[in-house]
Specification:
Length: 300
């Protein structure tokens, strides 16, 4: 199952309705659809469209003559509403963020897409520790954490969860979408803990009332990488190999000569086709494991 830590979505939307699931919790009981950490209920709200945009890119259902088609439209989608509107702005209380990570562990999520950001100067040492511990616990539980790099055009130093890194953490920058070469959007954050870049400029998303609009930012670049990661997991690739597979098969990023100092990242531009082809060949080369319904006939 794929979790999105963001604002809420509308389950009556035809692009989302088929993705709603009933998920068993390790602690007991079930999670119906998603969870709103502002109201401590399963009633999601859509005062902010941010979560809708992210979820549409990630998983909007296809072949329904409606809206969009996401990167991985055959998943169980679990939106965790952590965004809270304060004075007309989207904010994410850290307590919501930590609680959402703990819930992801509780329901044994596969991937979490997190287009959010925190900085240490916004936190006390104790809250910083709680965030670190929650991110570490999620990775120790085998959950892939995909995050956005941010949109200030600076080195993503100490922007969490991007800067946390880790073997199961993947931070995604924003590529321009209308260039001959792969070029980072000048507004995208960059740096040595930004793993890959994906298209995040002028991306078509839901505009409300059955309309479409465009948006830009690393927030909509991250779900491209989340979707490809989900596809790799569905093929049988282990969580610890997803980021290496993706980074090994990126395309070079071009730095225009008149753009000043190059903004560099660890990897390159996401190439879904190259990554998937490699994964298929890699899986085919592995010895076939016996399944529970495989039997051998005894002679004599």
């Amino acid at each position: 199952m794929k979790m999105v830590l963001d604002s809420g979505i509308n389950w009556t939307d035809p692009d989302f309705a088929p993705l709603k699931g009933r998920v068993k919790k390790t602690s007991g009981g079930y999670l119906e659809g998603g969870w709103n950490f502002n109201t401590e209920s399963s009633n999601l709200t859509t005062e902010s469209s941010h979560g809708t945009h992210v979820c549409k890119v990630l998983a909007a259902k296809g072949n329904n003559s409606y809206g969009l088609v996401g990167i991985a439209p055959n998943v169980t989608l679990v939106p965790l509403q952590v965004v809270k509107i304060v004075k007309g702005k989207d904010t994410v209380p850290l307590v919501n963020f930590v609680a959402a990570l703990n819930m992801a562990i509780d329901i044994k999520a596969d991937i979490i897409s997190m287009s959010v950001g925190f900085y240490p100067h916004q936190m006390t040492p104790s809250t910083l520790y709680l965030m670190w511990r929650a991110l570490r616990s999620a990775q120790l539980a085998g959950i892939l954490l995909v995050s956005s790099a941010g949109n200030k055009g600076v080195r993503a130093l100490n922007k969490y969860p991007c800067w946390f890194g880790g073997p199961l953490g993947m931070c995604v920058a924003n590529l321009l979408s209308n260039q001959t070469h792969n070029v980072l959007n000048p507004n995208s954050n960059w740096g040595e803990r930004v793993d890959v870049a994906a298209y995040g400029t002028k991306i078509v998303v839901d505009g409300g009332k059955e309309t479409l609009t465009i948006t830009s930012g690393s927030s909509v670049a991250a779900p491209f990488a989340t979707g490809i990661s989900a596809i790799l997991l569905s093929m049988g690739v282990k969580p610890g190999k997803v980021k290496p597979f993706i980074r090994m098969h990126t395309d070079p990023i071009y730095h225009p000569p008149n753009a000043g100092q190059p903004h560099t990242i660890r990897g390159g531009a996401l190439n879904a086709l190259k990554t998937a082809k490699f994964a298929i060949n890699w899986l085919d080369s592995k010895p076939r494991e016996l399944r529970s319904n495989d039997y051998l006939e005894l002679e004599g």
